Amino acid sequence: MKRVYVNEEWCLGCHLCEYNCAFANSGLSDMVLALKGKPIFPRIHIESGDKITYAVSCRHCEDPICVKSCIAGALSREDGVIRINRDKCVGCFTCILVCPYGALSPDENNVMQKCELCLQNAVGEPACVKGCPNHAIVYEEREAYT
Predict the structure, then answer these.
(1) What is the pTM of this model?
(2) In the chain, at which end, N or C, are there fewer CB atoms within 10 A of the end residue's CB?
């Protein structure tokens, strides 16, 4: 299955992946109308350390603890992609607490959100990948580690 991977050595920390993600999931066709002067709620986040910057997004785990721990049954795994049924989410934040990668976050209504690979947006590949100027974020299939 294709997934989003990040090459930390190439990440500039520019946050363009966050803006492209927020725009792709806004439901609007104009980026300025969607984002200007508004708080953004991307499904990918830039983290910075002393010497490294990298993007954090859902890893779509084979055995997802977030799905197992969701008290409302809002999280599910479909065709290898972890999805959120926003109508079922009760905003308890349990999934945030159990995710070892920090991949989930609340939106403006405290409903959980996470990367779903832009599959619902029909852009061909995740918006964060398309919008990364340094190609630090890629969408590809890799062999599983054994």
Answers:
(1) 0.89
(2) C
Type of residue found at 98: V
Q: Are domains 1-57+115-146 and 62-103 of this chain identical in fold?
A: yes
Q: Where are the domains of the chain?
A: 1-57+115-146, 62-103
Alpha-carbon Rg of the chain, whole angstroms?
A: 15
Do 74 and 88 meet the contact criterion of CB atoms below 8 Å apart? yes
Helix (H) or strand (E) holding 128: helix 127-130
| CATH T-level fold of 1-57+115-146 | Alpha-Beta Plaits (3.30.70)
Q: Alpha helix locations (H) across 10-109?
A: 16-24, 31-35, 65-69, 94-98
pLDDT tens digits, residue range 86-137?
Answer: 999 999 999 999 999 999 999 999 999 999 999 887 667 899 999 999 999 9
